[in-house]
Amino acid sequence: MEKFFESMIGKFLRWLAVIPGACLALILVPRLMDLVLLFAGPYGTNESFLSSIFRPLIVSGIGSWSFVYIGSYIAPLYKRVVSIILCIILISLFLLIVLGIIKNDLLWANGTYEGWLLIAAILALIVGSIIGVAQVWEEN
Questions:
Q1: Nearest alpha carbon to residue 88 among 118, 59, 67, 119
Q2: Smallest Cα–Cα separation from 68: which of 49, 87, 42?
Q3: Span 113-132, mean pLDDT?
Q4: Are 14 and 76 in contact (CB under 8 A)?
Q5: What is the DSSP string of 5-24?
Q6: Any idea which of 46-50, 63-67, 89-93, 134-138 has the lowest mean pLDDT?
Q7: Number of helical (H) and strand (E) elements in the chain, helices listed first
Q8: Helix 112-139 vs helix 49-74: crossing angle, to nearest 10
Q9: Are residues 138 and 71 in contact, defined by beta-carbon separation less than 8 angstroms?
Q10: Alpha carbon of residue 105 to chain centroid
Q11: DSSP labels for 114-131?
Q12: Average pLDDT over residues 36-62
């Protein structure tokens, strides 16, 4: 199997799978991490105030890290460049989402707590993707 992925057709298929694989990691890894963190606490009780703050931040950071790291892991060549491009794509997409939320006055629609939590989650996303780039940069 390793010989196939190092052939010309295998490398072409890996290049085709970079964005879908990274998007799949961006969807699945945070959901699994969210479930682990939800069930790690006391079972059957409400979530505490601190865990309701830190759980979305951790999940957002790990999700963005997995997008960058797994996407660059799938790429057959130029892993550093791919990680930087994936980081730029992810940050720009989420900044566009935030600009749309701000333009439509939806940032504070659910209250100030949720608005600040969204801002903190976007910052965690940026930090997680930069950590993913740094990790890929150090490996190669």
A1: 67
A2: 87
A3: 91
A4: yes
A5: HTSHHHHHHHHHTHHHHHHH
A6: 46-50
A7: 6, 0
A8: 30
A9: no
A10: 25
A11: HHHHHHHHHHHHHHHHHH
A12: 79
Q: Are 101 and 114 in contact (CB under 8 A)?
A: no
Arithmetic mean of pLDDT, 58-84: 93
Confidence of residue 4 (pLDDT cuts 50, 70, 90): confident
pLDDT value for 43: 61
Token pair of 1 as six digits:
């199997």
Termini Cα distance of the chain: 23
Read off the tokens for 33: 């991490």
Separation CA 106–CA 121 (nearest Å): 16
Q: Tokens 């940050």 — which residue?
A: 91
Which of 12-26, 95-109, 118-132 bottoms out in mean pLDDT, i.e. has the lowest? 95-109
Residue located via tokens 């945070």: 30
Structure tokens at 9: 């057709």
